[in-house]
Amino acid sequence: MNLQILKPRKALNKAFLKVKPMRIEIERFKYQLIYLLDRSNVTRGCRHGRIGKTNRPTGL
What we know:
The protein is an all-alpha fold and 60 residues long.
């Protein structure tokens, strides 16, 4: 299986490109993404015996 990296304009339906997101929706998405990444790192650390260490690469 080959993965193709698409730019957002190519990946989204044209109708979605016309909808402007509200600032509160963007902030909520950012908060939830950070929460998800932090939670996955804690879960991953517990499984491998590394509680508290982050496995995320630097520079993100």
